[in-house]
Amino acid sequence: MMNKKSRIMILIASLILVLTFFFPLWTIDLIAPQYPEGLGIRIWLDQISGMKPNDLQSINGLNHYIGMKVIDPDSIPELQIMPFIILFMIVFGLFNAYIQNKKLVYAWIILFLVLGAVGLYDFYIWEYNYGHQLNPSAPIKIPGMVYQPPLIGSKQLLNINAVSLPSISAIIILFSILLTAFAIYYDFKELKKGTVK
Amino acid sequence: MKNISNKIILIVIGLIISMAAIYSGCNQSKGTLSGNEAEQVYVAPGNYDDFYLFASGGFNGQIGVYGLPSGRHFKTISVFAQNPETGYGYSEETKEMLNTSYGFIPWDDAHHPELSMTDGIPDGRFIFINGNNTPRVAKIDLKEFETMEIIEIPNSAGNHASPFVTENTEYIIAATRFSVPIPQSDVPISSYKENFKGTMSFIKLDPKTEKMNLEFQIIVPGFDYDLAHAGKGPSHDWAFFTSYNSEQANSLLEINASKNDKDFIAAVNWKKAEQYFKEGKAKTYPAEYYRNYIDEKTHIAVSEKNNQVKVLDPKDCPGMIYYLPTPKSPHGVDVDPTGEYIVAGGKLATVIPVHSFKKMLKAIEEKQFDGEVGGIPILKYDAVVAGEVQNPGLGPLHTEFDGNGYAYTSAFISSEIVKWKLGTWEVVDRIPVYYSIGHLCIPGGDSKKPYGKYVIALNKITKDRYLPTGPEITQSAQLIDISGEKMKMLLDFPTVGEPHYAQAIPTELIMKNSKKFYPIEENFNPNAVKSEKDSRVERKGNEIHVYMTAMRSHFSPDNIEGIKLGDIVYFHVTNLEQDWDVPHGFTVKGNNNSELLIMPGQTRTITWIPKKTGIYPFYCTDFCSALHQEMQGYIRVSPANSNVELAFSLGK
Q1: In a shared domain, residues B501 and B566
Q2: Is B569 found in the same domain as B455?
């Protein structure tokens, strides 16, 4: 049994995850003088899009000079899986708000943290592979140069400064986890107050 | 004696010194400016100008696009002239634009750019310009800065009084400078008075489709119709045309057409004309003329031939047209922002006559006529004139307005701009220009709401203003500040071609709509190839169709074999780029046609008829990328009877 406020918090933490379907998870902006209007990609739960309609094509065009693979959203399996993971976490969270089993709430938090960590590691590997697996017949080859964008932060890659940052959906997920954790903590305090009385 | 001679010597020395001082003073005054003129025209690197200026290219048949106040040149829009730089008028997609009833005409003499208007104010949708030689009116879309439509005007022999738009661009009006037999016929030139006629044309701009259609013409006496302007506000329903050669001379016009003290401004009630047209008063004349337009979906020029035109005769249409006597061989006719004053540039007159629209209506009502010509009543000069500007300079031609009650008139012979006050007709300021000004331009200066700020002098002669470049020296315009009481010269800037007339519009009305590239999914050119894997070469009889793509930094295919002498090769090149400012060029060695410049998302076709066997390189002509020099390919041309198979490849 949990107190009402904690239940509502868990409910909210689950429901706000719906918003992650409508906002990007991560942004990678490529800053260079020749692109005064900006150039960048947006990574969503289920797709990768350009900051502007044709940015992905432009970035693939640039990348082919240094032999990077074409970024083809259809060939990235994570984009097929991630929506189901989030959907599962929403259902699981709602279930917790209804059943009020604290152990399951702990399980939800730990599972989400593990999934998040795995996701970030996977993203790092994805970036590593894109940056390192270069076509040996690329027109531009610079010995020792790799083109892995940073996980978070900025990095100068030849003439382009790549800036990678979590976006709205990542913040929503973080907030959802924190809110659930707080719900448990709050319930614990309420329980204590109750026993003191 | 000695004293006297000393005095004389002193006087002579004094004279020499003062002459030298005057001379050097004159020399200095040519280039010396006082104060912050440089700051006023300086647009810092990376910053934008405040106005777009569209200046006609005259004999080059194009429009030059400039920024104000910097005078920097941005683009030359191809209109009536073929342009081998882009392939305009050469490529299969554009060459139909230059079709006329006289066949393919690859040039014209373009004089008067005119911005489209809504409620009497430039709206930034289109700019129109006339072809003076082979009468045509072109419509340029200001999202793309490309010519989208050209309509030929039949029964016209020199489309000078053109194109001027009515207050909401309901009509684009045009009149013929040269009168000729209408319909054309083989008559003695000396039968001018008997056989030669003029016409005024009303081209309707369909408000929905934005296509031009020659709705009707009005047949008028055989004078030379020179310039025009539509009314605004109270005079919304009217259009005004100047005429000279009311003497109807057909030879040595400089003498024979300068005899009459007064020629005419024709005031046409176009609303009434439209009504007569709708009532079926117009007669059908046979007339061959073309309308060429860029199809919206395919972006391919389509030529449409018309065979007749509706013509109204003033004799059948009372109240449609009146003549306002105007001294003397008037050139420009300009309507002030309120729509009340009609200012004539009486180029041989010693005054600037200004007619009153109110007085004109009253004179018509009271039938204050002074005879008639060809069924057109002539109104009494005193009954219509509002005032005369005295001492306006020699050879007044054109007038524009600043919206603060002042008018600015160019004076060709005395090379100056004269500022005068509407209503009092007094000259308040004048400034010399270098040299021999024709038109002048104030941003929005012929509209209901002039933006003022500058007047641009569009000069005919440049002489010593720039570094000489042989006998042919640059054409030029001058920027003058009119924000103060006194006009102030700011800048000379060269123009591409002769700037007969120019119009300027605030940057923000155009800039936000400017297209950056053509979305590939909206490319409906039947020869487009939207993906590299679909690029191919096909033979249809002796026609070879190369469906080629261009993408940084290669063409696909880039090796082509199996072309034989006698084949006609069509290169259909699609630029697959979807990014701003990444055009690709395409050219093949020894092509008697032009190169192509293909904008991102666009398909363009150039035809090549190889004349010798061998290997021909082709390459990209627009430096597109770090590997632009690698963007090349080869075509093999074999003898007519060879067995070489048609083959194409990329990267093999």
Answers
A1: no
A2: no
Element housing B555 (H / E): strand B554-556
One domain, residues B595 and B488:
no
CATH number of the domain where residue B397 is located = 2.130.10.10
A7, two tokens: 């239940």
Do B442 and B505 share a structural domain? yes
Q: What is the pLDDT of residues A15-28, one digit of tens each?
A: 999 999 999 999 99
Residues of B in contact with A61 (CB under 8 A): 551-552, 577, 579
Cis peptide before B29 (omega within 30 of 0): no
Cα separation, B440 vs B437, whole angstroms: 7
Joined tokens for residue B342: 């009609």
User: In this structure, are residues A157 and A150 in contact, taking their beta carbons and an 8 Å threshold?
Assistant: no
- CATH number, domain with residue B596: 2.60.40.420
Domain annotation covers residue B166: yes
* Nearest chain A alpha carbon to B46: A36
* Domain presence at residue B522: no
d(CA B51, CA B451): 10
B447: three-class secondary structure by DSSP:
coil
Instruction: Encode pLDDT of B522-575 as tens digits.
Output: 999 999 999 999 999 999 999 999 999 999 999 999 999 999 999 999 999 999
From B455, B485, B511, give the residue that closes a domain. B511
ipTM: 0.82
Tell me which H or E stretch contains A106.
helix A102-132
Comparing alpha-carbon positions, the chain B residue that sits nearest to A39 is B579
